[in-house]
Predict the 3D structure of the following.
Amino acid sequence: MNFLGSIGNLMSNTGFKKMLELIYVPNAVTDILSGTAVARVFRGHMLVDTAQYSLLISEIFNIDVSKLLQEPHSTIDSTEMRKIDQLCSQLTSGELSVSEACESDILKNLEATVRRRIEILKQSRTTKLWLQYSEIVQVIRQFIKAERTGNWPLHFQSIQAMLPFFAASGHNLYTKTAYVYLMTMQSLDEDHPDVYASFINGNHVIRRSNRYWAGISSDLFIEQVLMRGMNTASGLTRGRGMTESQRSLWLMSMPACPEINQAMQDLSVVGYFSSEQHKDETRARQKKDTDDIQTLLTFLKSRNPFIEVESSLRNIETGVVADKTVNVHDAKKEPCIESIQKAGEQIFVALYGWLQEVETLDMLRYRNLASKVYVGNIYVQVHTLPPIADAAKLHCMRVYHQTQVWIGKSDKLDLKDWGWYVEENKLLPIRAILP
């Protein structure tokens, strides 16, 4: 999953790698940061996020984390936490429903207190980075829930939430294709209402059982079923050959294999069943997760990223401070018009093969024209020259507005502020003002 790799890119040189090395071997951490070891990636992110939120809550409500680490089953001496513990007990015993618990004044007051504190802590760039990391982990949780439960609106919302992080991590191809995907799917209810109705019913994922949490994406299904069948015993890659006739025979026989498998189970009175309990719910896994969270908390306690008086962006492992040009903590920040124009001009300069740090677009146009005049014996075709900076800026503004239209975020954008004007009830592009 490429989004998991983008997280490793954004969190590089922040101390995040060292935290993972406390609970995984270094070779596994390399795969986690690249996003290839999916199961380990999910577990690692959940544990780190739980540890840092535990530290944050302890800072807000003055809870002694050191005491909890030494005595994990000790009682928390905090009025707010005791109320939350009582609310949780009522929820698990069935005295309260989930909706009633969510609407309780206890949770609302807790949320308000946490939000006020977070807004103060966000003055620190380091704190802002780690809080942004928590938002990314929440996107992962949201996407997993959408795929496992077949929730199409939540799937669409999750992909949309991934876009700024794809772009900030430099995964440009995924950023582009995700934009195109969202643009296409946004009008699915009008273009293909029958497909949209099927997706709303949860059929955009594939299920191998009727369990609630059993949906998987189509690409995972291909890898786990079709590709697995090709690489296991009696598969195409195990000496059967890859000719067209053998491929056709293997593919056409696949639907009959489950029936034969079921008949063999009935004949031998030996059945294959999977447990209702997920492996993450076993006591051994829960103990391992608890021990790892305590290890991470011990690391974070002495390298606290949530320091109010600090405004710099630092590596919590080494203490190295980044300069003001590093803005990884603002991955979700909405770009201003000036930054869009500047980025667009740099793209045009790069497209024409010149140095972005040295050349401006107007200087590049002049040098390109001068070189053509000097070596050419015919007139210069103007359309082969780079555009002027003013025209490029207007074009980039219109492109940005169009991308916001595609992903459904153009409600608050006025066309007249983004390179367009209205004349005689017609929407026309603003022409370049400078020659």
Q: What stands out?
A: The chain has a mean pLDDT of 83.
